[in-house]
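Feature request, filed as a ticket because there's no other form

It would be nice if the structure record came with a short human-readable summary line next to the tokens. Right now we just get the raw output. Example of a typical job, pasted below so the devs can see what we mean:
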Amino acid sequence: MNFKNIMELSGDASHRKFYRDKKNNSIIVYANKEKRKNLLIYAAINELLNNNKILTPRLISEKYKKNYIIIEDLGDYTGLKKFKNYKIDNYIKLFEILKKLKLVRKRTINTFLKTNYTIKNYSNNELLREAKLFSDWYMPKIIKKKISLSKKLYIKIIKKLILSLKLKKKVFVHRDFHISNIMIKKNKIYLIDSQDAVFGNEAYDLASLIDDVRVEVKLKNREKIYEKFISKQKKINPEKLRNDFEILSILRNLKIIGIFTRLSKRDKKHKYLKLIPYAWKMIDERRKSNTTFEELNNFLSIHLQKHLKKNEN
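Raw output as currently delivered:
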């Protein structure tokens, strides 16, 4: 296919490129790096979700050997546009999707290459690996002396936080569930970017949605959204959910700071750096209100105090 004759769309943080084929009402997803995840697994998980009545862009055809697939065009109306006023009632619709995701049970799915893919567990080791993105990419920018000792202490603290998670049942986790990954077509809600899905803690997607680094919402309004979610839960321990929600929110935003720093330094994608101050703000809001984060608070105060003050200003 000649990509020069079709419109390239703005990309995301992945290695994918997107092109709109208006003539055929479709989107071409191109990936010559990590194409197994970004094409093969992406299409397979989308099919799994569609089969569970969670709308995603459907696969039209595949040219895997040529590094692209063709999927349904959902248009340009994103959740960011639809839910920009952040009314609580709007979030109820997204809570319904979270409820459906929890009901997904199938782990081994078929791909368009007639192979099987088993969705992985969101293990403690994986959570730790992601948290290390902060220490590997962000901390060296700030801490110039004894960085190896600082990293060891940070990792020790993160391990304790991970072991403090209380919800043990593993459910389907989208892993990047926020309103920018929601598309609206004919008043129906579609979910995109599902290629990183895992089975893990059900508080993770909730934290992704409420403490979303891409949209600034006052803490009191985010708390109202959280309380509305809790009011609709019947089979979950609210204390355990709150504990895990706050821990996973902080771990996720530490990971995000690491990823955005890596995108800038390694991939020359600098636009995400502007989101880091708000990620810090959300980390501060969660950690300062809970004694669970006492060791993390001490670590940040000692090792990143000047930088934290800079972000606060």
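Something like this underneath would help us a lot:
The chain has eleven helices and eleven strands.
The domain at 3-312 is CATH 3.90.1200.10 (Aminoglycoside 3'-phosphotransferase; Chain: A, domain 2).
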